[in-house]
Amino acid sequence: MEMEDQMESQKRRGISKDELISERTGSLGCVGWFIVILSAIFTICLFPFTIWFCLKIVQEYERAVIFRLGRITDRKAKGPGIFFVLPCTDSFVKVDLRTVSFDIPPQEILTKDSVTVCVDGVVYFRVSDPIASVANVSNADFSTRLLAQTTLRNVLGTKNLAELLSDREGIAHGMQSSLDEATDDWGIKVERVEIKDVKLPVQLQRAMAAEAEAAREARAKVIAAEGEMNASRALKEASLVIAESPSALQLRYLQTLNTIAAEKNSTIIFPLPMDVISHFMKK
Known about the structure:
Elements: H1 2-12, H2 17-24, H3 29-45, H4 47-54, E1 55-58, E2 62-68, E3 71-72, E4 81-84, E5 90-96, E6 100-110, E7 116-127, H5 130-135, H6 140-156, H7 161-166, H8 168-182, E8 188-199, H9 202-244, H10 247-262, H11 274-282
Antiparallel strand pairs: 1-4, 2-3, 2-5, 6-7, 7-8
Helix pairs in contact: 3-4, 6-8
């Protein structure tokens, strides 16, 4: 916290972070240099034995931040490979540069339209500045996890339920920008944020299902009514054609007989012209 306050005050005066780190890694003082020289003499005198304590190795995906008498020795982290430290005066912290992913625990959130939902997500981040991740925050990984939970609640609290269900990608980008800006002083780069699942209350699910079913039934009734209207118009046009040409009715009889005969049934139909029936009805 002290270094963060110093960095903020230095930023107000126009001094960059690198200049601040350079200021903090300044001279060790007379007593400090005396202890360092004494440690170097001790290392040289007991060289066959102290070599095992002086040489350290870090992997390709790791960096080492070296502290000499409590001060950072250089503005650049050491590694990968072999590096040299002085016994008794130097200590180092290994920092993993690989991308880390973690699940945001399910958070119960009250949306803008007063609907309670349970949302979880996943965050991908990595260490971009090893020195800042060690010197500016006590536990960068744990701090980023807590910040992701609070950011998820703050961002989703400004959205309504419809936006939450339809605009997950936009919400994820907004969370990533907010997290990346907040963790920049910690040396953390947030690469990706994704919303995994949105769990609705059971009663709300039933209400939404009933609403969707009612909407589907309404659309089905409208489509059926439109179909009946179109069919009635087609039948009207067909009746007008048959009325203009009486031979068309005989052709329709023959087509019906052909359809019935193709089904291999025992039904026998004798078509009787309507003009014959009308002749008997007149009598």
